[in-house]
Amino acid sequence: MHDTPPSVPDFTQWPSFPFEGALRVKQLDDPVSVEPPRKGEGHRECTACNAPDDAYIWVGERWRVRAMDRPTGLPMVLILESRSHLDLGDLPNLLAAELGVMTVRLERAIRSLDGVARVHVNRWGDGSAHLHMWFLARPYGRLQLRGTFLSLWDSILPPISESQWRENLALVAAWLAEFGGRPLAEPPRIQWQAPSSIAAQSSGQRAAAEAEAEAVSVIEAAEEIPEPAEPAEAGADAQGSADADAESGADAEGDTDAEGDTDTDAEGAIDAEGDADADTEGSADTDAEDGPVGAANGNRARQ
């Protein structure tokens, strides 16, 4: 039985809260007895372990730093990951000490960018078992973005320009490389050639608008989206549906037999058509087996 939802908390009246108007608190779900595995737990694949170095902006012997796939609303959003498949509480003393050094170093690198006032460091970890730390840059002068709602504002603000984003990535990577490791982010190339026509310029603007619409922010990142718990009734419902389908198929088969007993000519026609379908299906299966296989087989993703 659900508890009565509480009244809307006072922080909804804070200047930093990104929403206004009538709000209500969601009903709290009942707790589950067993939580679903995160990415990298049990039989679930680890995205970070499988990501190549070229998916990151800087790589070292034991740490890597990556960015989002495309610009978001904040000047910089980066993810610090360990190379080893460990969570925060599993770090040995060496990596635990290095985590402190890397956190300070990356915070300084991001804070050195133009227009950055503060760097928020966050760790959630409900979506992935591989340690990842989030670094979010708050724009200078944007006092409304101060505090705990910065990750929400990242989804709301319009994305920064891709050229500025790429330049910021290259600056951070170069800063980190001063202490070791290898920078992989490159600054944007200068576009010397202007669009040849208004149509080409309009096409470029449309492509930029589509990229902006597809931008994935911190709050929407796959690493921070926990797997939903599967209700126990789902399996029973699926089984019941399968039983119902089987029963329906049996009834249909009975109807076909009755019809065959009544009309022998029709049954012969159906049998002939079935033989033709079987021949066609066998030919299609053979073609599919002879065809090429594995076209689909041809890395922050923070904390």
Describe the protein in words:
The chain is an alpha+beta fold. It has a domain at 47-189 and 210-224: HIT-like (HIT family, subunit A, 2-Layer Sandwich). It has helices at 47-50, 93-111, 150-156, 162-177, 198-213, 233-262, 264-290, and strands spanning 58-59, 63-67, 77-82, 116-122, 132-139, 182-183. A six-stranded antiparallel beta sheet has the order 4-5-3-2-1-6. β1 and β2 form a beta hairpin. α2 (93-111) packs across α4 (162-177) and α6 (233-262) packs across α7. Residues 252-303 have low confidence and may be disordered.
User: By CATH's scheme, which homologous superfamily of the domain at 47-189 and 210-224 applies?
Assistant: HIT-like
Mean pLDDT: 77
SSE series: HEEEHEEHHEHHH
Radius of gyration (Å): 28 Å
CATH class category name of the domain at 47-189 and 210-224? Alpha Beta
Q: Please describe the biggest sheet, giving its number of strands, its sense, and whether it closes into a barrel.
A: 6 strands, antiparallel
- Tally of individual helices: 7
Cross-sheet strand order for the largest sheet: 4-5-3-2-1-6
Number of separate strands: 6
Strand content: 5-15%
Global geometry: globular
Weakly predicted, low-confidence segments: 252-303
Class by alpha and beta content: alpha+beta
What is the helix content?
A: 25-40%
Stated plainly, the CATH topology of the domain at 47-189 and 210-224 is called HIT family, subunit A
Q: What is the CATH architecture assignment of the domain at 47-189 and 210-224?
A: 2-Layer Sandwich
First-residue to last-residue Cα separation: 34 Å
